[in-house]
Amino acid sequence: MNYMPGTASLIEDIDKKHLVLLRDGRTLIGFLRSIDQFANLVLHQTVERIHVGTKYGDIPRGIFVVRGENVVLLGEIDLEKESDTPLQQVSIEEILEEQRVEQQTKLEAEKLKVQALKDRGLSIPRADTLDEY
């Protein structure tokens, strides 16, 4: 097998099932149909998988185009081991509710942390007020 540098090495992964972790934290699972020199991806029969604790739910997304700069991780899924998971699949409605509760809990914990620091005379600048350059 010849070594191909960069994204050219992914050509042999076309038409295989892949998991893609995005910069915003979302997880996509689908069949890799196309890739270019910028690592832009086209996924087919894509689902967005949401994990909360030991449960997960899949939201059908169809054909999905992902800009290469948003890809954190790309990995092939072993179809023989795919069903060997300790996670429990639940309905879309249930996983979205679990996700909402988890996010609300994190937000409340963050507010308590900020208040505790404020009570001690410390403050953390909010991320949306920081310059991005």
Automatic annotation (TrEMBL):
BP-aspect Gene Ontology terms: deadenylation-dependent decapping of nuclear-transcribed mRNA; histone mRNA catabolic process; mRNA processing; negative regulation of neuron differentiation; neuron differentiation; RNA splicing; stem cell population maintenance
Principal location: cytoplasm
Highest taxon of source: Eukaryota
UniProt entry tagged with the keyword Aminoacyl-tRNA synthetase: no
Entry GO terms, CC: Lsm1-7-Pat1 complex; nucleus; P-body; ribonucleoprotein complex
KW Cytoplasm (keyword) present: yes
Keywords assigned: Coiled coil, Cytoplasm, mRNA processing, mRNA splicing, Phosphoprotein, Ribonucleoprotein, RNA-binding
SMART domains with a match to the protein in the record: Sm (SM00651)
Pfam families per the UniProt record, alphabetical: LSM
Cell compartment(s), UniProt: Cytoplasm; Cytoplasm, P-body
Function (record text): Plays a role in the degradation of histone mRNAs, the only eukaryotic mRNAs that are not polyadenylated. Probably also part of an LSm subunits-containing complex involved in the general process of mRNA degradation.
Family designation: Belongs to the snRNP Sm proteins family.
Protein name (database record): U6 snRNA-associated Sm-like protein LSm1
Gene from which the chain derives: Lsm1
